[in-house]
Amino acid sequence: MNIVLLGAPGAGKGTQAARLIEEYHVPHISTGDIFRAALSEGTPLGLEAKKYMDAGELVPDQLVIDLMDERLSQADTAPGFILDGFPRTAAQAVALDEALGASDRVIDVALSIDVDPEVIVKRLSSRRTCASCGRITSADEGTSCKECGGALEQRADDNESTIRNRLSVYEEQTAPLINYYQGKGLLVEIDGDRPVETVWADVKAACER
Ligand code: AP5
């Protein structure tokens, strides 16, 4: 199962990806997570990406495309994958199709999770991520992860002005991909402004169609 998760920042892509991993046992490939891991290791990739991420802008296409070409050539992606945060521009979507075509693979489904921008600003302002197990939660949980006791951290780009810029970058550069995948007959639109389990039921049904 080769899945693309589309949706604005904070729509719930990472939250639903965690359930998809348990269901399909295929790798979750999040370009944002790759950049954040590279930054915490202090690599040149991470330091370059930070310049864009801190401002809520997109990392340049060629850097992202080269990174993903390499990642998708790895053996663990052969049984399938969940792409979260990629592709994000028309150039990335075309490059993805070319990379998959070269190995006789295709995208099976593109899920677009839709949430009102003002709901997203509230969600992201209170999002916390466990530094130990990576679980995504909200500030309502306090400062320690209820699953593993790790420290709950706030992402550097989850402040209101950067969130609003990420939302406008999404509208300009990524939302057009909804039409791209609709044209290919691969798009399923999902209302993401419902409880996580209700959204998950629709995500699962879309992957099984
Ligand atoms: P990235 O890390 O991809 O971030 P994003 O797209 O902004 O998405 P988020 O991770 O913020 O949100 P999400 O949809 O995963 O929501 P989540 O499940 O966490 O990208 C970061 C940056 O990296 C970009 O700005 C860019 O600079 C760069 N980048 C990455 N990929 C790139 C690319 N391909 N090209 C160029 N640059 C790239 O949920 C959010 C919150 O809501 C959580 O608190 C969660 O608990 C809560 N929540 C989730 N679902 C629900 C629900 N149903 N009801 C209530 N609350 C919910």
Which range does the strand content fall in?
15-25%
**Overall pLDDT score:** 96
Give the total of beta strands.
8
What sort of overall outline do the alpha carbons produce when their principal axes are compared?
globular
Instruction: Decide which structural class fits the backbone.
Output: alpha/beta
Name every ligand kind in the structure: BIS(adenosine)-5'-pentaphosphate
Radius of gyration: 16 Å
How many H/I helical runs?
9
Percent helix: 40-55%
Q: What composes the largest sheet? A: 5 strands, parallel
Q: SSE order, as H and E?
A: EHEHHHEHEHEEEHHEH
- Uncertain ranges: none
Distance between the termini: 12 Å
Strand order of the largest sheet: 2-3-1-4-8
Q: Would you spell out the secondary-structure blueprint of this structure?
A:
Blueprint: E1 2-7, H1 13-24, E2 28-30, H2 31-40, H3 44-53, H4 61-72, E3 81-84, H5 90-101, E4 109-114, H6 117-125, E5 127-130, E6 136-138, E7 152-153, H7 160-174, H8 176-183, E8 187-191, H9 196-208
Parallel strand pairs: 1-3, 1-4, 2-3, 4-8
Antiparallel strand pairs: 5-6, 5-7
Helix pairs in contact: 1-9, 2-3, 4-5, 6-7
Bound molecules: BIS(adenosine)-5'-pentaphosphate.
